[in-house]
Fold this protein.
Amino acid sequence: MTRGGSAVWAGGAATRSRVTVTVVTVLVALAGCGVRPEAVPRPVEPSASRLPPVTVPAASPNGEVGERLYYVRDDRLVVVTRQVPTPSAPAALLTTLLTGPSEQERDAGLGTALTGVDPTTTVRLTGDTATVHVGDRLAEAGRTDEVLAFGQIVCTVVGHPAVNQVTFRHDSEPLGIPRADGSLSQAPLTCHDFGSLLD
């Protein structure tokens, strides 16, 4: 009986010995990797550099969100924030922009360079890039109005949380867009390309 008990005790000692060796091995491995064990567990935050930038519309006290539209005053781009129940899709945001300033906004001196733009203008979203398909009237606009018109569209559309940049096409072909510095670009655009026109 004593022999059996000794055998059980010896087996327990061997088990404890293996566990101790395993723990020591893990601690040595962690030390070799430069990771120090901590007595109290703590949550690990993800690296901020890996998180995509997200623009969240400002919410008003009644639960509505702010939608930013860009209009024109004295050849400058002016942002207007309207409160809406829920964020609009990029295409709906462009449709709202094309309707022009409200009566109150017009009274404040705001206008638009998008007057007479072909209403068939559409937006398609691929990843974080919105592609705007424009009609003939916008593609052939006068030089000054053209810069302001495209600036209105780009700055408004990139205000949507899902959009970071905008490209343009006409008749299924890439369209060169005039930027504020006078250069033409077929590359994706952001509001920074029209920064010198912002009021």
Q: What stands out?
A: The longest strand covers residues 65-73. The helical segments are 2-32, 90-98, 103-107, 136-139, 143-157. Residues 1-38, 40-59 have pLDDT under 50 and may be disordered.
